[in-house]
Amino acid sequence: MPYETIQVKPSTAVIGAEVSGIDLTKPLGNQQFQEVHDALMAHEVLFFRDQKLTLDQHKAFGRLFGELSVHPNTKGPDGHPEILPIHADANSKRISGERWHSDVSCDPEPPMGSILNLKVIPPVGGDTVFASMYAAYDALSAPMQRFLAELTAVHDGAPGYSRTNQIIGNATPKVFPRSEHPVIRTHPVTGRQAIYVNPVFTTGIKDVPDAESRSILAFLYEHCARPHWQVRFRWEADSIAFWDNRCVQHIAMWDYFPETRSGYRVTVKGDKPFYRAG
Ligand code: SIN
Q1: What are the residues facing 46 on neighbouring strands?
Q2: Closest residue (by CA) to atom 3 of ligand 1?
Q3: 7-268 maps to which CATH number?
Q4: Inter-residue contact 33 to 242 (CB < 8 Å)
Q5: Which stretch of DSSP H or E encloses residue 80?
Q6: Could you give the CA distance from residue 46 to residue 256 in angstroms, rounded to a whole number?
Q7: What's this model's pTM, rounded to 2 decimal places?
Q8: pLDDT digit string (tens) for 164-201?
């Protein structure tokens, strides 16, 4: 795809691209916005370096892609409810995103994208790994694709968020979103099919016995985690990763304890997942 206002260098043959020639602290013109959007659709996750965004600039960049959502469990800094702090240090008992997931897939209209800007990174480690759920779907046999296309999964925020709250000692009772989504979702922009279940939020497959549900999910989790459709991002201070939750899962590596890793995420609202036969 030709780009006129940015440079886009694929990170792997399957997923991820590093974008340069752009300053995200400044408002983007229409063409530059369109090219960033096109690059995201083509590569599923984009990486930017040396972007020293203020929280307001971070939100303004996110808002180009849609309304921002407020996280159902974690409060933002004062005056910035749409900002999700991502922070771990020597006192941390857990970190966000330690298992494969698509952000807040328990929501009835889960986020289309997330934009993470890390400010402090450990001397080594703290990478994020992203996996293409398009490629994972495409690698399945046609009979398996047809079988999965008929299934619906339950996604529930309660088990994961309650466990987090227990670990960090937050006793405030909360009600978390719970939703049903197709196991295979059609991307609303590209029309491609993607696997849409993950071990953080998916609690079962509807209308099948528990044993079958467990086996189907175990197969899919192992399949989705294969290295063939992954890219591993090595952060620098002020890097940004912008991923499309509709076709990407990710996992954060907590291999740097007791060092500090810290930054902010904005999350762009999405729409209700659907499946349309291709
Ligand atoms: C997340 O958004 O799940 C956290 C990702 C990360 O910290 O790398």
Answers
A1: 17, 242
A2: 97
A3: 3.60.130.10
A4: no
A5: none
A6: 24
A7: 0.97
A8: 898 988 877 788 999 999 999 999 999 999 999 999 99
